[in-house]
Amino acid sequence: MSYKGAHVQDSCVLERRLRPIYDWLDAGNYKKAIQECDKVLKKSPNLDRALALKALSLLRSGKESSCITILDSLTEKQLADDAILQVMTMCYRELQQLEKVSQLYEVALKVDPTNEELHTHLFMSYVRSSDFKQQQKAAMALYKLVPKNPYYCWAVMSALLQAIRGEGVDHPKKKSLLLSLAERMIDKLIQENKLEAEQEVQLYIMVLEAQEKYDKVLEVLDSNFGTKLSGDLPQLRLVYLKHLNRWPDINVLCKKILSESVDRWQIWLSYLKSVFELYISNNHSNNHQQDLADVPDLDVVDDTPEKAHEFICKLVENGSDNGFLMRGPYLARFELCKQMRELNKGDESAECLLGDPMELFIEYFRKFGHKPCCVSDLREYLELLDGERRLEMAGKLIREVGITSTNIPQTEQQMQRHICALQLSRLCGSHANLSAELIKALVTALSYHYLHGHQEYGAKLLSTDQAPADAYTLLGAHFLYDLHRMTGTSQPLLLAIVLLKYTLKNSPCNFHLKLLLLRLYHILGSGLNAQTIYDSLDIKHLQFDSMGYAHCSMLSSSGNFGLASTLFDTTVKFFITNYKDSSDHLTFSYKYGSFSKLSEFMNFQERLGCSFHYANTLVEKHFVSFVHCNTIEQVWALDILNNSKYMSETINWDKLIINHNYNVYVSWDPERINGPIEEWKETKDHNERDSKLLYIKCTLLDCMQSALSIFKAPEHRRIDQLKAKVVAWKETIKGNGVVEDSEHKLLCMRLLSKLGSYMRAPYLQVLGAMFDVVEAVYIDDMEQCTQVIAITKEAVKAMTSDICEALTGESKSPDVYITRKVNLEHLSYVIEILSNVSLLCLVCWEIIKNSQCGASKKAKKKVDNSTRESITNLVMCVKEEITKLDEVLKPHTNELTPLIVSKMGSTIFDDLNEQLTAMNLSEEEGSVADILTKAYAVTIKELRTVLKTKSKFLSCIS
Amino acid sequence: MTTLRPFTCDDMYKFNNVNLDPLTETYGLSFYMQYLAHWPEYFQVAESPSGDIMGYIMGKAEGHGDNWHGHVTALTVSPDYRRLGLAASLMNFLEDVSERKRAYFVDLFVRVSNKVAINMYNNLGYIVYRTVLEYYSGDPDEDAYDMRKACSRDVKQKSVIPLTHPVRPEDID
Ligand SMILES: CC(C)(COP(=O)(O)OP(=O)(O)OC[C@H]1O[C@@H](n2cnc3c(N)ncnc32)[C@H](O)[C@@H]1OP(=O)(O)O)[C@@H](O)C(=O)NCCC(=O)NCCS
């Protein structure tokens, strides 16, 4: 810069003058920041940093184009002042124009080619845009300038990434060239005796591994370099020994590790794998006997199941690691049994060696039955027993615990064992075919056990401890859900809520109770109550993605558009911020040399960006914004109008991934023996339905976007684009045909996809006709217009009369809660449709206004007037229908509570009360009905407000 | 079941059964990523045979001169897998790494109300080095114990002579 000489002195003054701008920026007050910039720029109009800061402030206050103008002018100046470049970098990152950052630094380096900092920034800019090739070049240039090891390693890593994630992926030749280049680069370091740091050794191993040079990796591990690694060396060696099929070595190494610590499960798995590999290959090459005489035990290779059994038994006998009870060797026996079974299908060799597997279960239960993990440990091996024997075992375990209908656990341990036996029984299918009466009796017993367990063993617990007796309630809730499925009534669900709420009062921190409550409230369509529970779970950060779906996706279809809108915003914000930040983590990895994490970070970034939940929330968010659009100004300020692309084009459909965390929902359903929930067929079907639904909604959103921004498109393409989008949407819907609802069988599964109910709502009838109206108005075809308006009116009337009829019939329905839920869902769709209709009416209106101004159409004013009339007529009709619906909803907000409760007095609550009294929970009676009814009334009130504003909105355009 | 393996980003998608525990904090993504990028060897997880996360430990190495030490940032075990020695072996691992890095001691902060954890750390050889006033914000704020255990490099056990006065959060280095 020109004033370089006086730099030091000046820079203090400069910092002082610029400070306030940074402060306003930090405080998020961009208007003030702009004012401050202008103040500084008035005095020194050529102060580029102030200009850059102004660009940033403009950008953050939404003035993108003014920002870009300044950035362009600054770019022309070919600056090399890093402070300015940093600010510009921020702008470009926020504008998502990463390549511009690299260009900036390329230019800067031409001005100031020996500046280490600028070189580093250039390198990092390529990291952010995943341009591995340029990364490598930049790193080498940097190393030539400043020969430090880390820079050199950056170059090696960049070459490696090119090979495994860049162009090498599709070009095997290039891949091997790049990899051998990387290896040679490291060899050079070694020759110069410069390979020192742990990270460098790791990088070396990564390069060798990518070339499958496992022998060489083992050499490195055994050499001096190995001592630099802080990971677990033997465990590392195992990885590479396995690649090389060196089973005897693996066997001996595992034995050594296990005899030092018997509880290392992965090592047990490797050990048994090696035993069977050896056993199988020995069988082929006919027993060659080892001469065992002088070899110490541990160095003997165990190559038969018998030897493995002996080894396990020895470790079991030797007992514990530093006093703790270790599950490892006991579980190893199950694994041995399983593998023998798999190897010798149908023969009895496993039984000959290990005895009746049932005995293994019973022994394990005796040892670990007082630990909650006993159930999930054994679950993995229950398939060793067939259905019948499972039942037999379950019976034995229950008897083993000694609790019958006439006695209660005498100690906390006995209670834990009782719980464990009950959970295993459920897993084994003992409760699969119970009658309703038996289930009721069982639930009553469980609630007694809960009360007793809580009183006896819960009193001394801290509020942060997990109370063991809570497990009785959890089980009880699952049984009640079974009962609900059997009877199709809501009563067992209410009962489950009572039980869970009661338990939650005693154990306010138990998240299992909350997760079940969340689910049950949603099953009953009570989004508002679900929200209270959701809040208490304190879901945040990545949990938005891993757990948010269970709640988020249910809110708008239960009529809670307000709540949905807030949660959608938070969720989308989480994704956007973190997706942007994720390139920071890559730069940290280079900075700290944690090269092994780079690929992992990149995969994670992709997983986050391709989250199904993210895409779904984005789409839903727009529809909710339509519902909440109350004035014409709000319409033209809708977010969707800022999108430069159509939503369906921005979603990476092939890569969408469901990041839902299933295993946090505990349950003991027999189905769980068949593997993790995410792999069940039902789960996959469900996911597929959800994807279909998202696609339908997304194509409709495209139509809405196209219609709302019709004047943005070049004139000759306006209507064609809309037509194309509408055709795509209609075809998507028709392609799905009629969709039957699937069944929600188990509480641990995600709630049902809404595809079925959505398809039954008259989206196609009403909105399909409405798009035709838009088109007819646009091409100014009066005849067609009259015709499609008539169709639209009919469709809207049919829609409202359907829902009104359903709502009026609600109080007569045998099970109010179930009916309400169905109606509320339907009502939400209707309101969403009406919101879209309102927007489209506005679009028609704009088209008419536009053509009347005579911009392009030639003197068609007469026709315009009649078009205008028919649109007004349509708007009036929609308004009337809205009023009708609103009237029908009125009694659902006021009189409802007493009405429904008295109604239920005869049908539902008799039985419920009885059951509650039997469960000693009668004081809670009615309260659940109350909160459900209150929440329902609040939701209906909210929906009525929406309807009223829609009506007002329509008044403005006619 | 104490085979530990390095914690990976994907584990964050399935650690809810552990993190929903009231004494375990779920941090922002960047916080975990920073640890993964900077101290990957200090971030370990224990997985059950059924694939659940049983518990994990997250830590770092920091400090200058004879203050060079290992620090436990988070240690947690799922309620279903407690009292099986898991936390003990996770701590053991972190101490080993710190030994290899030639640290002088290992330290950690714990809520003064967290009796279970304090008792456990005591049993593992940690002493209360000092009290940090109002270290945990909340309603009301809560004090922390800064607990320490000397590594072999601190032959004279200088790092574990308890302070007699409590300190304020801004005074800890
Ligand atoms: C503290 C915590 C990590 C302990 O995990 P753990 O795996 O159950 O602990 P271990 O089995 O390794 O226990 C080691 C020793 O600590 C002590 N201990 C652990 N839990 C205890 C308890 N609930 N009551 C009494 N002593 C206990 C015992 O001396 C135990 O040895 P022992 O079982 O042979 O008597 C676990 O309770 C937890 O995750 N709590 C919530 C998160 C938390 O508080 N973290 C610490 C924040 S700094």
Descriptive keywords:
heterodimer, A: 958 residues, mainly alpha, Serine Threonine Protein Phosphatase 5, Tetratricopeptide repeat, Methane Monooxygenase Hydroxylase, Chain G, domain 1, 0% strand, flat, disordered N terminus, B: 173 residues, alpha+beta, Aminopeptidase, seven-stranded mixed sheet, 4 helices, 7 strands, 22% helix, binds coenzyme A, N-terminal acetyltransferase B complex subunit MDM20 homolog (chain A), TPR-like_helical_dom_sf (chain A)
Strand content of chain A: under 5%
The CATH architecture term of the domain at 770-958 in chain A is Up-down Bundle
Content-based structural category of chain B = alpha+beta
Largest interface: A-B, 64 and 53 residues
Number of helices of chain A: 44
Arithmetic mean pLDDT of chain B: 95
The major sheet of chain B is characterized as: 7 strands, mixed
User: Main sheet of chain A?
Assistant: none
Oligomer: heterodimer
CATH class of the domain at 770-958 in chain A: Mainly Alpha
Helix content of chain A: over 70%
Q: Which superfamily, in CATH terms, is the homologous superfamily of chain B?
A: Gcn5-related N-acetyltransferase (GNAT)
The helix fraction of chain B, in percent, is 10-25%
> What characteristic shape of chain B results from the CA principal axes?
globular
Unreliably modeled segments of chain A? 1-6, 855-860, 897-908
Tell me what the structure shows:
The complex is a heterodimer of chains A (958) and B (173). In chain A, 72% of the residues lie in helices and 0% in strands. Among the domains of chain A are: 1-113, Alpha Horseshoe (Serine Threonine Protein Phosphatase 5, Tetratricopeptide repeat), CATH 1.25.40.10; 770-958, Methane Monooxygenase Hydroxylase, Chain G, domain 1, CATH 1.20.58. The radius of gyration of chain A is 34 Å and the shape is flat. Chain A is mainly α and 958 residues long. With 173 residues, chain B is an alpha+beta fold. Chain B has one domain (3-171): Aminopeptidase (3-Layer(aba) Sandwich). Helices cover 22% and strands 31% of the residues of chain B. Chain B is built from four helices and seven strands, in the order E-H-H-E-E-E-H-E-H-E-E. A seven-stranded mixed beta sheet of chain B has the order 1-2-3-4-5-7-6. Chain B is globular and about 45 Å long. The termini of chain B are far apart. Chains A and B meet through helix 15, helix 20, helix 28, helix 30 and helix 31 of A and strand 1, helix 1, helix 2 and helix 3 of B. Coenzyme A binds next to strand 4, helix 3, strand 5 and helix 4 of chain B.
